[in-house]
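Duplicate of earlier report; ENTH domain-containing protein input re-posted below.
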Amino acid sequence: MSSSTIRKALGAVKDQTSIGLAKVTSNIAPELDVLIVKATSHDDEPAEERHIREILHLTSGSRAHVAAAVAGCSRRLSRTRDYVVALKSLMLVHRLLADGDPSFHRELLHATRRGTRLLNLSDFRDEAHSGSWDHSAFVRTYALYLDQRLEFFLHERKQGSGSNASSSAKWPVTA
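Output:
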């Protein structure tokens, strides 16, 4: 059995374990935690759009679900040493920032200021693949980009609207 086959099998086992744990241990939104694990799985395929759409739907208009989504993404990013999972997690955060509930921006910023290292992946290193230093560098750079875009967006909203910033403002997708 080749090492890539073993790695894929191990990734599938990790994902199934994470799904089982999410169903049992999640207090607020177990279905959301399961969807986050499914959207950020270890397989080399892109995340299924239906999982992302369901996450967007669950987080729309529910502060509890938004907080749970931030916690779930943070947990996924902090525990992984696989660039595929990290990249999918960052892409999910990007999608939630671009298309999700506006309160996701604030919750993400508050979580970061409370000490959650959600977008601080400066020490990320892929340990699941051999010779993946370039993937690790990309993950670190993408996380830094998202962090800086979030800070810029929130700063601009604060400057442009004063203390009565519009909660309906969307995060621009293009830089």
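The chain has one domain: 3-161.

Merging into the original ticket.
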